[in-house]
Amino acid sequence: MSGNTLLAAAGVAVAVLMLASIWKIFTKAGQAGWKCLVPIYGGVVFMRIVGRPWWWLVLLAIPFVNVVPAIIECFDLARVFGKGVGFGFGLLLLGPVFVLVLAFGDARYVGPVRGATALRRAA
Question: What is the pLDDT of residue 114?
């Protein structure tokens, strides 16, 4: 087996593993896993999971601007699964590893909490 073939096989394996992880994250959040396979609809559902409006997808499509919402979404994803800022940095810096931990670990979806709702739930 040549080096290029081995590299391609490893890439396909990582892609399948990431797809399975995102599917599992959708399922943990109470959504059907297949929704992550549909390009724009999956993005809209992901925005719903992390508690952001659908139009953030437009921000993610703008070069250079997309960096800021992408970083925020890492921390949002950590928060909606009950994880802290450290886990958010993990998602930001070592995304594939932390997505696997989120998907196949003991993390549970707690939902988006922000603003006055967060204050009411804390009291």
Answer: 63
Q: Per-residue pLDDT tens for 16-31?
A: 999 999 999 999 999 9
Report the predicted TM-score, pTM, of the whole model to 2 decimal places: 0.85
Phi, psi of 12 (to 5 degrees): -65, -40
Alpha helices (runs of H) in the chain, residue ranges in sequence order: 3-28, 39-50, 56-60, 67-80, 85-93, 95-104, 115-122
Residue-number span of the structural domain to which 84 is assigned: 3-122
Report the distance separating Cα 37 and Cα 20, nearest Å: 10
In 81-114, which positions are buried (b, 16+ CB within 10 angstroms) versus exposed (e)? bebeeebbebbbeeeeebbbbbbeeebebeebee
Summary mean pLDDT of the chain? 90
d(CA 12, CA 27) in angstroms, rounded, equals 22
Record the tokens describing residue 123, joined without a space: 């009291």
- Residue 106, SS3 per DSSP: coil
> Hey, is 43 helix, strand or coil?
helix
| Residue 109 contacts residue 79 (beta carbons within 8 Å) | no
Number of domains making up the chain: 1
